[in-house]
Each structure stands twice: as C-alpha cells, then as structure tokens.
Design goal:
Ubiquitin-like_dom; 62% helix; Ubiquitin-like domain-containing protein; transmembrane helix
C-alpha cells in the first residue's frame, strides 16, 4: 500500500512538474515583415525564453526600434487579429513556435506649423501690388485686343480687295483657277462670319460698357461738387442778405 501511495504521489508530482515546465517553455517566433515602400519581404526569427515576462510592445521596441523612432506604425498580426502592445506572449496562444506577420507602415508626415498672421502694413503693400498688377494686366490685355483688332481688320480688308479684283476677272481665268477662287471666297466668307463679326460685336459691347462706366463715374463726381456749390451759395446768400439775395443767385431759400 505504501509503495502504491508513493508511486501515486510521484506521478502527481511529475505531472505537476510537466505542467509547470510546459507553461514556462520558451517560444520561437518567426516574423514575416511587410514594409511599406519595399518590394521584398523580410524574415526574422527570435527565441523568447520567458513568455510570461515579455509583452508585444517590448518585442516591437527590441526588433523594430528604428521604425518606431521614425514614427512608423508597427503591427503584429497573428491568426487574423492584431496583437496589442500590452498583451503578454503567454496569453496570445502562440505555442512553442509561431509565425507572426509584421506590418510596418509609412512614416507619418510632420504636422504643419500654423502660419503667423501677416502685419497690416504688409497686407496693405500686398493689396497695393495686386491692384497695380491687375491694372497693368488689364491695360496690357486692352492693348493686345486693340492690336489684334487692327491686324484682323487689315487682313479682312486686304484679302477682300484681292478677292473682289479676282472675282471681276474670273471669266479670264482657267477652270482650275476659277474653282480655287471660289474656294478662297468661301473660306474668306466663313472666317468673316464666324470669327470676324463676333469679335467686332464683342469689342463694341466692351466699348459701350466702358463708356457707361465713364459716364456714371463722371455723374457721381459732379454730384458732390454741385451739392457743395449750392450749399456754399445758400450760405453766402443767407449771410449777405437773406431770401432776396438767395433768389437772385438762383438758390432756394431754406
């Protein structure tokens, strides 16, 4: 009986030791590294002797310290799930040997610094430069339009005179020359109707709008001057002689 009890206790102690040894067994990890911007796949292996005291975050800092310093995201993926940094290797169900996929992302761009508010003087100078540039651009555009209009008018006038002269002598030309003359006349008429006349109408519209703005600006500038003159005349009339002098000056008495 004693021998049987001794054997039972020895077997129990042996099983307990085996369980403890199995819980403390080291782990061999094989990493398949996928890095952003790199075409080749990296492989790395590591033997962890103490799975109980090792976390996922400590492994990241040990193996991929450079990527973490560059603020790149490092993720351990096992069985389709991402391992948290605070997780202990013993609790991840890795076994004695495991394959872990490592995903290293691109570096995060630095945060842009807020731009300093521009000073009022600089803003005024920029506004003045932009206004001067806009006026110079408008003047250059107007001169360009005027030059183009003159060249177009000269082209249509010269070609029209030549075509008219040739058309009067069409009976003296050969059949091929007369056909060519008809083709040139058709092209000239097409250019005049589809390109020349629209430009003329557009320029006329621009001229009318500019004339209207000039007239409205002149009326607006003359109105304050007339009001000032009438007010000055009324004041002089009141100071000099009252309503009679005001009537003589043509100013309504107040």
């Amino acid at each position: 009986v004693r021998s049987r009890s001794t054997q039972g206790s020895a077997q129990a102690n042996g099983g307990r030791r085996e369980r403890l040894r199995g819980a403390m067994d080291p782990v061999t990890l094989h990493f398949n590294v996928f890095q952003a911007g790199a075409s080749a796949e990296g492989r790395r292996s590591l033997h962890v002797g103490d799975p109980r005291g090792t976390t996922v975050g400590s492994l990241k800092r040990q193996l991929f310290a450079e990527a973490l310093e560059e603020r790149r995201s490092v993720r351990f993926i096992k069985g389709g799930r991402v391992l948290e940094d605070a997780a202990v290797l013993e609790q991840c169900g890795l076994g004695s040997e495991a394959f872990i996929h490592v995903s290293i992302g691109s570096s995060s761009p630095p945060r842009p610094r807020p731009a300093a508010a521009p000073q009022s003087s600089a803003a005024g100078a920029d506004a003045g430069r932009s206004a001067a540039k806009g006026s110079s651009d408008s003047q250059g555009q107007e001169s360009y339009i005027g030059l183009g209009f003159l060249l177009g008018a000269a082209f249509f006038a010269g070609t029209g005179v030549l075509l008219q002269t040739a058309w009067r002598r069409r009976w003296q030309l050969s059949m091929r020359a007369s056909q060519l003359l008809c083709v040139l006349a058709a092209v000239w008429a097409y250019l005049l109707l589809c390109h020349g006349l629209p430009v003329v109408f557009q320029l006329l519209g621009l001229g009318l709008r500019a004339l209207g703005r000039a007239v409205s600006g002149r009326d607006g500038s003359e109105a304050p001057a007339n009001a000032g003159r009438s007010a000055g005349a009324r004041c002089a009339a009141e100071c000099a002689g009252g309503p009679a002098l005001a009537g003589a000056l043509g100013v309504p008495a107040s």
